[in-house]
Amino acid sequence: MEKTNRSKGSVVRSSRISKQRPTATPASNEGSMADVLVQPKPKPKPPRVFLYIQLNETKMLPESEHPLELHLYHAKNSLQKMQEHYTTETIIYQHEFAIQRPVFALGVMQDDMEDMNVFSDNPLVITLYRRVPRLPKRGAKERPKEADLIGDTTATPLDVPAEESASPDGVLEEPAWYEGDAEEGGFTEGHLEMLSRGHCDLLQLFQRRRFISDITVYLYPELKGPSADQTTTCTVWHMYSILPILKEFNFTNLAFVTLESVYNVPEVLHQMASELGLSISFRARVPDERGDRLVVPLCTFYGFGSEVISEQNTSIVWENIKRDINPFRSYSFNQMDTNIRVKLQRVFRLLLWEKDVDFGSNSIDIFTDLALVNNSMHRYVLNEEMRRILEAAVLHNSHELLLQLYHESPANVLYEGVLNPSIFGYPDVNYCRFASTLNPYPMDSTKSLVKRGTLDMGPMFASVKICFFQSIVQRNENLDKYNEDLLKRAKLLRCFDHTFLIEAEDDHNLLLELYRSFDDLISDMIAVIVKRDLRTMAEGQDYFCCQLANLNNLLLKICGCDFNIRMPTKTNLEFRAMLTHMYKELMERIERLLAACSWESVCNCVVNFEYEQLHMIHLMEEVRLMCLIGERELAGQIFEDLRDSNSHQLLFNFYNFLNSLENAKFRQASRYFRNPVGGGWVGEYFPSLGKLYIDYMLDLESEDEERRLQAYASMIASLREFVAKNTLDLDAYVLLYCYYKRHDYLPGMEFTRLRFENLYGVPRKNLAGTPVSLFELFLPEEFEQSSASTMMHVKFYPVFTTFARIGAYGFAEVVFDEIQSCFTATEAYLVTSTLKILQRNIDETFKVMVFPTSKSVAGKLMHHYQAHINGNVEYTRGRYDEAMRYFRELLTIEEEEEEEREYFKVSLMRLGRLAFDRGDYELANQAYDKCPQHCNKMNFLVSYGKGLALYYLNRLEEAILYLARCTEVEVFVPDVWGYLAISNLRLHRNKTALECWKMAKMYPEMFLHDRIYEELDKINYSDIHLLVDDDGNPAEVMKKKDFIAL
Q1: I want to staple 306 with a disulfide (CB 3.0 to 4.6 A). Which of 167, 270, 398, 915 is the partner?
Q2: Residue 30: which pLDDT band, with cuts at 50, 70 and 90?
Q3: What's CA 8's distance to the chain center, in Å?
């Protein structure tokens, strides 16, 4: 019988030993951060300092007919009970609870980094047990036993860690309940039942003065168990040390490494979830002279739960405590909780995804799909020397983090992946969640063991979070001072993303946002009233029922943030006076909105907006075309008339701002920001985006040499400020990424990529309701990207077009360089050439290129595009004859291809103008004939050019037809009336000619073109009958006074 019992005991011990292997402390198998980063120099052995631990008080003990025990455990294994005889027993029996005995001593090496990391990553575990003696079966109350160790599927009779059963010599002894007649049928074996467990963070011990404190530790029960045992026990411990644990040493940072979950996992891995582990190691990126890459272990995580993603417990637990409990069986997360949570609603948000890898996260259903859930954490201590080493490794990109998913033993690797920690080299970045693909380890046995369950499943990837208490690229504050302050001490338990904790710079930003919301809400309400012709509130009850509640909330916020601060009140009368003043101001603001647009969007005008906007857009486009073909005097006339007669100054100012920016008139464009009240758009998105470019170009053109040299640095600083204020818009993030890539600044690339990749699903702001941009006039069609384009390239193209449309061509060039490979060589040439044309960067060294094209429809279109752009290249550098040679090729476009003719309108009109100036009126007429024909009001310039060409071809009747169309534009152009007068005069329609001449001379301050007076000089006045109406009505006779204007 004794032999049998010994055999059984040895089996239990060997089983327990095997299950403890994965729980090696950072001081041994896993390796501490000190071992990873610093090779310690030989120093004198520091003294040992003892922390004394004494139970002061226990509250809310569960009711039990059997004695209770408190067991203390720490991974360092140096807990000693203060008594005469040496023992490793760390038990407090129930009769000792009230007598404040025994006292335990925990040895800590003074100023020792290895000890600090052991204590930082291994809290003191306190467990409350009930000792059930050996009883007859009929008197025993059976309690279902649950496995307490990960992977243990059998109930162990003694539910305590193996270390607690060790003898003084360190050899495991057989539990006492195995001795005697354990196999007798009439008795149950004696055993321990775990009732509750808690832990105490020991990092607070490390300070430069002696530690003394009363610490409360709550012992939480298992969530699955008898209701009588569901009691949370409160224990108070008196802890103190005689000497300070830190004397000459300072720790300056903390590193929190958290493994969350593994997704897209094959079915076979779910079946062995509790036997899987994941190790993280530092690995050199560059092999040494032997071709090997140095690998230094950092930490391991062991034991997963196969759970539905949405049903997981979101608590992050201590990894080294979790290994002694199976949380996926007993649900005892609160016994090892770190007070950090996984945010399920953002589980796939704010992740730094591995570049150019489609993880298929959109196809993952968190309510049905399984994942391997770990949710546990390691915490390590860093000093200044280690921080510098980490900073150098990150900034120089010399090391990466190797992830290896293994089965039971780290040597049995199934999958591995890599994550790059370079993002921590970016200023103020201390936190990042990484998504790293896990690929099969290159072994045939592994590949045959683990196969993908479904073909449509994305690649398997792990979510790992790394957080530093302070950024590692700046000098860190000493953290041992935190332990000396009771309130600051708790901060060392958690780690937050600093970028999300930055508060607004001042209250003005908040007030501005409130008034923006107020303006938008009032504008929307006015628009609904106007469009639906509402007379009473009852007619719009379905709309106003919700909007009035929103208005009430806004008014309360505005009152509290603005008026109640400007006019503090103490009595009811003062408060009433303040509300009266508030009512007066807001009503005046509403009245202004009735005659203008909301300052949030150009598309929110209420009164006659649609007509006014379209009219203004059309005239601005005509002015732009006139400038492009050389009709600057005519453009100036229309612009002045539009400036003086428009009824929406906000729209005009914004359109004029865009026009100035597109034409590189940066000083003129900068005036837009001088008058916030008149402009109304200062600080809004697109003007602010344009201001970044304006300031950059003004710095580059400055006469101050120092300002020119600092232009690039100032622009990058402005971009960083802009993205901090516009966190939901990716344009500036993408631009920053492209600039960082130009200079191989990997930390900046990773930071900006983290930001803009997580904005793909956020709707972009559109620049709608504006005149056609210059870039769109030259390249109106968006080229299709190749099938090999990545998601990043696809998302970059709209950013490029945004910068090109607002006139920030330098920024557009930088973005296009990143996606140029996604287009054909012809398309890339067309885009880059257009950007150079618009920036006026075409000089004599620019080489015009012609690419071969096919005879297909797409090939012909690309041939015409080349002629269009090459002609404008030559036009820009003054080679007009060469330009005309390219432009002539566009005359071969078929008449039915109206859309294609629209693409090349600028070139055709330039050809018409050049031909007209050279006296080739027939060619000019052909060029204008190829221009697309819209309604009369939208073809002023085409009709005017064609009318002049027909006039000089002596096709006067046709010329009058086209010139008459120009009068339908609601802008007065005297030259049109002048040519109409001369044409009618030559056709002997004297009265009509006189009426047209009166119109031409209506405003004497507006001069007619010299060509009109030249045509008048050609007329032989002896052939004109001045007193006879020649318009077909003999009854009408002209009188002498009709010629006074002549």
Answers
A1: 270
A2: very low
A3: 60
Over residues 87-97, the mean pLDDT reads 89
390 against 1035, higher pLDDT? 390
Longest dimension (CA), the chain: 147
Residue 397: CB atoms within 10 Å: 16
- Beta-carbon neighbour count of residue 66 at 10 Å? 16
What CATH number does the domain located at 253-500 have? Answer: 2.60.40.150
Could you give the angle at which helices 685-700 and 711-725 cross, rounded to 10 degrees?
A: 170
Residue 929: enclosing H or E segment and its boundaries?
helix 921-930
240/182 Cα distance (integer angstroms):
44
- What is the distance between the alpha carbons of residues 241 and 211, in angstroms, rounded to a whole number? 5
253-500 and 936-1046 have identical folds: no
Phi and psi of 199, rounded to 5°? Answer: -145, 160
* Of 952, 889, 964, nearest in space to 924 by CA: 952
Q: Report how far residue 450's alpha carbon sits from residue 462's, in angstroms, rounded to the nearest whole number.
A: 17
CA 474 – CA 482 distance, rounded (Å) = 19
DSSP type of residue 172: B
Q: Is 442 helix (H, G, I), strand (E, B) or coil?
A: coil
Summarize the confidence of residues 500-520 as an average pLDDT. 62
Domain locations along the chain = 2-241, 253-500, 507-594, 608-681, 683-768+784-823, 840-932, 936-1046
For 1019, how many CA atoms within 13 A lie in the half-sphere containing its CB?
18
Paired tokens of 716: 């990058």
Least confident of 14-23, 274-283, 518-527, 803-812: 14-23
> For 765-780, what is each residue's pLDDT tens digit?
888 888 999 999 999 9
pLDDT surpasses 80 at 154: no
Cα distances (angstroms) measured from residue 411 to each of 31, 408, 636: 16, 9, 79
Q: How far apart are CA 968 and CA 939, in angstroms?
A: 10
861 burial (CB, 10 Å; 0-12 / 13-18 / 19+) is: middle
* In 456-603, beta strands by DSSP E: 461-468
The pLDDT score that the predictor gives to residue 935 is 55
Strands (E), 712-825: none
Q: How confident is the model at residue 19 (pLDDT cuts 50, 70, 90)?
A: very low
User: What does the block give as tokens for 27?
Assistant: 């001081």
Confidence of residue 18 (pLDDT cuts 50, 70, 90): very low
The distance of Cα 436 from the centroid of its chain, to the nearest Å, equals 19
What is the Cα–Cα distance from 594 to 1006, expressed in whole angstroms?
35
Q: Is residue 780 within 8 Å of residue 902, measured between CB atoms?
A: yes
Geometric angle at alpha carbon 300, from 296 and 302, rounded to 5°: 155
Inter-residue contact 92 to 104 (CB < 8 Å): no
Give the C-alpha separation, 16 to 1, whole Å: 23
At which residue do the structure tokens 């025990």 appear? 69
Specify whether domain 936-1046 bears CATH 1.25.40.
yes
Class of residue 167 by CB neighbours under 10 A (exposed 0-12, middle 13-18, buried 19+): exposed
d(Cα 701, Cα 713) in Å, to the nearest integer? 15
For position 589, what pLDDT does the model report?
A: 86
**How far is Cα 665 from Cα 367, in angstroms, rounded to an integer?**
56
Q: How many CB atoms lie within 10 A of CB 357?
A: 15
Question: Residue length, the chain?
Answer: 1046
Q: What's the mean pLDDT in 778-791?
A: 89
Distance separating alpha carbons of residues 465 and 258, to the nearest angstrom = 5
* Distance in angstroms (rounded) separating the CA atoms of residues 870 and 326: 72
Contact predicate 960/941, CB 8 Å: no
Q: Residues 676, 650: contact at Cβ < 8 Å?
A: no
pLDDT tens-digit profile of 280-315?
A: 999 999 988 888 899 999 999 999 999 999 999 888
